[in-house]
Amino acid sequence: MSLIKWTPFFPEFDDMEKTLSEMLPTVRGNQFGFTPAIDMYEDKDNVIVETQLGGIDPEKVDISIENNVLTIKGESEKKSEVEDKNYYRKEIRRGSFYRSIPLPTKVDGDQAKAVNEEGILKITVPKAPEVKPKTIKIQTQKK
Predict the structure, then answer these.
(1) pTM of the shown model
(2) 59 three-class SS
(3) What distance lies between CA 129 and its chain's CA centroid?
């Protein structure tokens, strides 16, 4: 029995992925297990980043902001006693993960907050005061 590789993208790119994984074994191989997908959006005062981290202990996730770049890294452990050779499919990614995301505007990283709710990690980072829109009222002077 052989393991069937899950390819969610285009099969035309399989050869390119194989070539890249051979050229960069330290990055594609053992160093990073997967890259979590993110949603990033903003409201009036904050930049918000959400990612799915279901099944990952929040205590094993590190979040940092430096030079307006958000970094999320951690580890997902496999807690199964099934041997690799007994799988028909193996699509759930395990191991370490790392994601570095440049933020679209200047932020105040010291005021950032992270909440994990039902497997969704939501990171809220306030925008820096100098990038928030300011309203200036025009004063009229009487002669």
Answers:
(1) 0.64
(2) helix
(3) 25
